[in-house]
Amino acid sequence: MTDRTRPDLDDTTVEGLGKLSEALETIEQARGQLYGFHQHSGKADRLLQEAVEKFREAGHTQLADDLDRDLVGRNVIADRWTFQIVEDYDASYWSAFRDFDERARTELSGGDRHVFEARMKQRERTAGHPAHEAGPALDD
Prior knowledge:
mainly alpha, 0% strand
């Protein structure tokens, strides 16, 4: 196995790879929040439909009709429901970000991931301590 700390790479390159990886992780979190937005918006629309039914049952037909016509199934932004926002984000930004992360790792570190973190682990662990083993593909 190779040393995942990649001693052949200069510190600045490793720091750049680390920042790019951290940025991608942040994008992954943002994507998760976007999916949460999508799910919450969908749930709110279903609850709204239940409210419309209740208003109709209670005889508040004008309010129910107005809600049903103007709010149920409404675009959350111009021309889009949330699934379309998620799809656009995935297609235009998230996938491009992942592609550049993979390109940088391929071109600069032979595809190795988390080189910055591997160096940090080596720097911060206590060699010989039973809970601080080097682990797979890290040299002791």
